[in-house]
Write a structure and sequence with these properties.
CATH architecture of the largest domain: Alpha-Beta Barrel
Bound molecules: acetyl coenzyme *A, pyruvic acid
Structural class: alpha/beta
Helix content: 25-40%
Distance between the termini: 65 Å
Number of strands: 16
CATH topology of the largest domain: TIM Barrel
CATH class of the largest domain: Alpha Beta
Shape: elongated
Length: 532
């Protein structure tokens, strides 16, 4: 086996196996963007797709050829030749060569069941398919990564034959022999035992490719590395066929920070969170908050006891310094908060509370009471900031309500599903001026929003720059039917970012009013603070 010392090479297959995930479809432009990002991160191999599969992947390789990659080697993926034909005549192998990549990954069968059932050929012919396909690609000067599909299942069923397939690839010159847990059902102990046995027979460097069907893809990958494997195949965020592939956002920091291997530069790893979110954004997949290492909740502390301890030393409740992977510590404020949560949050927001223990206690009591009534501040940090500022006397109202009247009129002649007119009449005080105005809208909440803006834009023209992004209503105690308390969560945005606010009431208009006015007040507060 070639000597790699502590180095483990990372082979990313987000653009190939990642796109086999349900719900993911990338354009050529998307693929190129992701590939460039992975190259910047320092990933060693980027598998761009399967050129024999579709025109999109062919175009990717055509365009990738013209790009000068910083250090990543681009790989094209395909299968061994079809049974009963010459490797050079197989359109799939020809497409692999026409992709003109420095690296080619070729997948072959290791499991006798697959040879006889899926390929419907003989065990001997499968060995020839592997030998001739790898041999031809080597004749054309490619670095060949041989992916031994279903290796662990194949080895369990027929160890001698599974090993024979690896020897066929190695004998034909494959540069890497990658053991695949294609069905994702292997256990770490099995991976350890089988990988250790294989190492005695195969001289070429080994790789590992695991799937997550048993939720063990990361564990199986790092176990294989501890047995001497020096290439890990996986995807960003674990995207992949069925339950996904080994998640590189977990594999890499585990190998590097916990096990002492070298995968990427430590300075690059500080971009891991950014890369994870970038790939989710392009793939149009909502990032998982609880994703280890890179999720927004990965270093979010909610329980008062936890926050109290991390303020003394973050190691008490963090397995790793979040900055190592470009993530950050967050403290949440909720009914589970203690004084530490409030003090941390206030300090983060620049609210001076530290000398006033009684004030802190009153604020905690108020938050707990409000959460009991249905408010949820961890999802509405803008409302929380207003509550803390009001509670500490560090806030001046931008406007106050004098009266609000809403008219909702349904006209039967307009039929079902339409014909409801909504109008809001509002009287506000801004400083020593009273303003009285009215507006219509698509529904009562929209009418209130329009009337508020109409009244306030004269005083605060910048309000035109904020808009509503999301409006969510949740019924809190369904048993009371239409009398139930509702929680309204509003997400708003301007050109600099988004913020969330909350309102709770038995009346949906009142709950919406609270969340809407908090949103506007928060926007105005930030604007005024910026001007200071
Ligand atoms: C473990 C993995 O993730 S492997 C990657 C899986 N990814 C994909 O399949 C996505 C891309 N695939 C495709 O675009 C298409 O399936 C293609 C172009 C590869 C093949 O399409 P088709 O020729 O229409 O065949 P189809 O998809 O129906 O069946 C696959 C064929 O490949 C054969 N095959 C499967 N694995 C191998 C292999 N390792 N070596 C040679 N042939 C293989 C199958 O036996 C089957 O042949 P058959 O049509 O003679 O029965
Ligand atoms: C190669 C591959 O994608 C697999 O065996 O799962």
């Amino acid at each position: 086996m070639r000597f790699f010392g502590d180095y483990v090479l990372i082979y990313d297959t987000t653009l190939r196996d990642g796109t086999q995930a349900e719900g993911i479809s990338l354009t050529v432009e998307d693929k190129l963007k992701i590939a460039r990002k992975l190259d910047e991160l320092g990933i060693h191999y980027i598998e761009g797709g399967w050129p024999g599969s579709n025109p999109k992947d062919m175009e990717f390789f055509e365009r990738a050829r013209k790009f000068s990659w910083k250090q990543a080697r681009i790989s094209a993926f395909g299968a061994t030749r079809k049974a009963g034909m010459k490797a050079g005549d197989d359109p799939n192998i020809r497409a692999l060569l026409e992709a003109e990549t420095p690296v080619v990954a070729v997948v072959g069968k290791s499991w006798d069941l697959h040879v006889t059932t899926a390929l419907k050929t003989t065990l001997e012919e499968n060995l020839s398919m592997i030998r001739e396909s790898v041999g031809l690609l080597k004749e054309h000067g490619r670095e060949v990564v041989y992916d031994a599909e279903h290796f662990f299942d194949g080895y369990k069923a027929n160890p001698a034959y599974a090993l024979e397939t690896l020897r066929a690839a190695e004998g034909a010159g494959a540069d890497w022999i990658v053991l695949c847990d294609t069905n994702g059902g292997a256990l770490p102990d099995e991976v350890r035992e089988i990988t250790n046995r294989i190492r005695r027979f195969i001289r070429k460097p080994l790789g590992i490719h695991t799937h997550n069907d048993g939720d063990l893809a990361v564990a199986n990958s790092i176990t294989a590395v501890s047995c001497g494997v020096r290439m890990v195949q996986g995807t960003i965020n674990g995207f992949g066929e069925r339950c996904g592939n080994a998640n590189l956002c977990s594999v890499i920091p585990n190998l590097q920070f916990k096990m002492g291997y070298r995968c990427l530069e430590e300075s690059s790893l500080r971009h891991l969170t950014e890369v994870s979110r970038y790939v989710s954004e392009i793939a149009n997949m909502t990032p998982l908050n609880s994703q280890p290492f890179v999720g927004t909740s990965a270093f979010a502390h909610k329980g008062g006891i936890h926050v109290s301890a991390i303020l003394k030393n973050p190691r008490t409740y963090e397995h790793l310094d979040p900055e190592l992977v470009g993530n950050s510590r967050r403290v949440l404020v909720s009914e589970l908060a203690g004084a530490s949560n409030i003090n941390y949050k206030a300090q983060e927001l620049g609210i001076d509370i530290s000398q006033d223990g009684d004030r802190t206690r009153e604020l905690i009591a108020e938050i707990k009471e409000l959460e009991y009534r249905g408010y949820q501040f961890e999802g509405a940090e803008a409302s929380l900031e207003l509550l803390l500022r009001r509670g500490c006397g560090q806030y001046e109202e931008f406007f106050t309500l004098e009266s609000l009247k809403i008219l909702v009129e349904k006209r039967p002649e307009n039929g079902n599903g339409g014909g409801i007119n909504s109008e809001a009449m509002i009287k506000l005080r801004v400083g020593d001026q009273i303003i009285h105005t009215a507006a219509e809208g698509d529904g009562p909440v929209n009418a209130v929003d329009n009337a508020l803006r109409k009244a306030l834009e004269e005083f605060y023209p910048c309000l035109k720059e904020m808009h509503l992004v999301d409006y969510k209503v949740r019924v809190l105690d369904g048993k009371d039917g239409t009398r139930a308390n509702v929680r309204v969560l509003i997400e708003s945005a301007d050109s600099t970012g988004t913020w969330s606010t909350v309102g709770v009431s038995e009346n949906i208009i009142e709950a919406s009013w609270q969340a809407l006015t908090d949103s506007m007040n928060y926007f105005l507060l930030r604007r005024c603070r910026k001007k200071d």
